[in-house]
Amino acid sequence: MKLPSLRLFYFSVAALWILAVLYARGTAPVQGAPDIAPVAQAPPAVVAPDTFVATADSAGITAIHAGSWDEYSEVRDFTDGYLAMGQAWGDYDNDGWVDLYITGGQGASTLYHNLGDSPMPAMANEADAQLATAWFELYPHLIETTDGFTPPVAARAIGYGGITLYEALVHGLPGYQSLVGQLNGLSALPTPQSDQRYHWPTVANSAMSTITRMLFSNTGAANQKAIALLELQFAEAYRPLLDAATFNRSVQYGRALAVAMYGWSVTDGGHEGQLRNFPEAYVLPAGEGLWETTPPAHATALQPEWGRNRPMALRLDHPCVAAPPTPYSEEPGSAFYALAQEVYDTVRLLTPQQRIIARFWADDPGTTPTPPGHSLMVTTQLLQQNHAPLALAAETYARVGIAVNDAFIGCWQTKYQYNRIRPITFIHDHIDATWNDPDVTDPVITPPFPEYTSGHSVQSGAVAEVLTTLFGNITFTDRTHVTRGLLPRTYHSFWEMANEAAISRLYGGIHYRDAIEEGLVQGQCIGQQVVALRFRIK
User: Fold this and answer.
1) What topology does CATH give the domain 338-531?
2) pLDDT number for residue 28
3) I need a labelling partner for 258 at 20 to 30 A (CA). Which of 4, 249, 279, 402 fits?
4) Which of 64, 208, 193, 31 is nearest to 136 (CA)?
5) Radius of gyration of the chain from Cα atoms?
6) How much is the pLDDT for 111?
7) For helices 513-531 and 494-507, angle between their N-to-C axes, nearest 10 degrees
8) What's the CATH architecture for 130-265?
9) How far is Cα 470 from Cα 242, in angstroms, rounded to an integer?
């Protein structure tokens, strides 16, 4: 089929450019959507196939008109309601099919690469992040209200949820690649049929509803209904845009993908961890300087085997092992005694601002989404505040999820390797016997597991490394606990946030300083391994 001559409507001050008459190949790939790459400058020169301009800018268009690309009368539908400076089309990737370039006025511009599909369904890249953020706005509520979702268990759910979202979309994200073969134990996943069309947001919606039901299998009826309603909300929005075959095919592929993801998850050692947080068979080691149960509940050890779980990205030959803790000593003037004295003095002389910080980052299970849930909420707020496209949201949720999952595995391995005594126990026995009264000295309840390293530090450091790589050093505001009566807190970088989350455990009387500082180092190491994962094709 011979295409019409190039038409050019570009009204910026950039110089006009001209391309030759284009011809279409007789056999173009049919993948259900065009290639797409957001760009933020004047139209690029004609480029080689599959060459894209890398940027995280939003396309600024929320829906693509379902029509043939060679029907130029439909091009105007692309810019309805959008302040575009103009549009142009030409064969940018030299595949014989006309591609569309939308120039941005005050927003980003977008180059759409046509693969010859007719009609053209919505593309994963062009969508905004609403689908992703809606699902991950539900996760903190599920974590808080589902029995047994302690911090390690919550981190695991966030990890598998994030990877599922990404893998459900990746075949509709030009320039991105699957994590199969990169993550430990993930050797294969179902792939879409190359000769069939898919609606990638529908695939993702189906996959997320399926994996969420599986990960939160013991959640209550109200939460099960919430999962079903969220799935229905997006399904009913997408269904009218698609033919029945494409919609059903997309739903089925999403389910199959989620089932395969769940099959991978059950082999990691943490399967249904919410049902076995406190294993009765575990024998608590006894000895000088070792962890003992703490008031007020004196609960036994939480997830003592969690450090043996298979991590997602953490390399077995480089597991980010923490340095040994300060040697235990009961002698006044010793390094360890000084650490305990610092905790005692800090909490005894706590300033109002330090108390606010301690409470803001307490993130207690059962009453909050836990520390990894807090990191997830920060991620969602960040994506919403930056109007992120779905592609960036999918990558961000996957990286953050992997980071918190591996952070708790690495941290828990360290905790039960050293089994170090908590400050509340040492101070009660050697400095001040009234320390165990929460109304007097201990503003945050000590959790039931060994002290070294700090879980807050490790997971916050891992997340800070990931978010800094994705977004840079930006100012943002954390509104996670506004509904709980705590004021928002603003940070000028993700590491400023991580440092505050970490030091909050000193203010709360939970950790010694070396566990806090070494935890941040351990977390950064884990985050660097997550950053090293290859999401994008270079």
Assistant:
1) Vanadium-containing Chloroperoxidase; domain 2 (1.10.606)
2) 25
3) 279
4) 208
5) 26
6) 60
7) 150
8) Up-down Bundle (1.20)
9) 33
